[in-house]
Write a structure and sequence with these properties.
14% strand, 8 strands, Endonuclease I-creI, 2 domains, alpha+beta, 333 residues, 4-stranded antiparallel β-sheet, 53% helix
């Protein structure tokens, strides 16, 4: 079972006690997945979904909120490789008009192809009704990607009016959604993980919320560890690369002219680096007499590298720039 299906299973088990909230949830399901047609007996209002729990909840809302039992049929058909599709049909012109008018989805008698969208915003003026409407909209036309892979929650809306309403309702809870066109639909989406968590809380899916929070915590921890490891690895590579260059420069000076002609401070530094090729600068300074700090060691090694560069360039070595100084000073040679 996908993460999205698990969220819908949880939402389908939420049954509001207040009638106004059940009406709001029913209105959301109808506006997102309902369609009006006809048969020999008059109008038919159909709601289809591949999620069985959504269809069961819609059927329960009809019974509990509108006392509708007669004239309702449920059909199941194979939906290709994706599994089964379920359809609930309400038959009868009077029953269809009564239900759609009660959900504020029409202004008067409807007919085949009537566009179902919320005509009276008072239906979602109360916080609990806004929560219920978003829950119904997600059950009918929502999806949520597996947070282990990516963060993406979306509502597939049949038109811009419904998309704007969903975005407005999400915004009322602090979730700033975007809208993008996809084929003939308008997609309202959230990509920020914290806002998706908030949306799950708004729709009253605490178990899914906790599951996603756990995934977020684990991913944040992994990312933090990876950043630290990458940083330490880069520092190690930089240190090793610098040490290799220092050794090559000192070995070149030794093989070309010998270390005896260097000023005492530089000669001692060269000998210590050759003796301890893997030691960091801080430790190298402890092997000098007297001890020298990290910046002093770095200064001396830089002078050796400059001298090696002069030798490679076949210039007369400028020993005058490598003057011996007070070795107790970190910046001295």
């Amino acid at each position: 079972m996908s993460f999205s299906s698990g969220v819908k299973d949880e939402l389908a088990r939420v049954m509001p006690e207040r009638r106004s909230r059940r009406i709001a949830e029913t209105a959301a399901i109808l506006s997102m997945a309902g369609r009006v047609g006809t048969d020999d007996g008059g109008l038919v209002l159909a709601v289809s979904s591949e999620h069985a729990a959504t269809v069961r909840k819609y059927f329960t809302l009809l019974k509990k909120t509108y006392k509708i039992e007669n004239g309702v049929s449920v059909r199941k058909r194979q939906a290709g490789s994706r599994g089964h599709s379920y359809t609930v049909e309400l038959h009868g012109t009077d029953a269809v008009n009564t239900l759609l008018k009660g959900c504020s989805l029409t202004d008067g008698p409807c007919g085949p192809g009537t566009e179902l969208f919320l005509r009276d915003r008072r239906l979602v003026s109360e916080t609990g009704c806004r929560r219920a409407f978003l829950r119904g909209a997600f059950l009918a036309a929502g999806s949520l990607s597996d947070p282990e892979k990516s963060y993406h929650l979306e509502f597939v809306c049949p038109g811009m009016a419904r998309a704007e309403l969903i975005r407005e309702l999400l915004s009322s809870f602090g979730c700033q959604a975007g809208i993008v066109a996809r084929k003939r639909s308008q997609i309202v989406y959230l990509k920020d993980s914290s806002e998706i968590v908030d949306a799950l809380g708004v729709m009253e899916a605490p178990a899914a919320l906790m599951d996603m929070e756990n995934v977020r915590i684990m991913k944040d921890m992994r990312n933090s560890v990876n950043r630290k490891v990458n940083c330490e690895t880069a520092n190690i590579q930089k240190t090793v690369g610098a040490a290799v260059k220092q050794l090559r420069d000192i070995e070149y000076i030794r093989d070309r002219e010998g270390l005896e002609g260097l000023p005492p401070a530089l000669r001692e530094m060269a000998e210590v680096r050759l003796r301890y090729p893997d030691a960091p600068l801080k430790d190298l300074g402890k092997y000098l007499v007297p001890e020298v700090g990290k910046s002093g060691v770095n200064h001396r090694l830089r002078k050796l590298s400059e001298y090696a560069s002069e030798l490679r360039g076949k210039k007369r070595p400028g020993l005058t720039v490598i003057q011996d100084g007070d070795p107790s000073s970190e910046g001295a040679l």
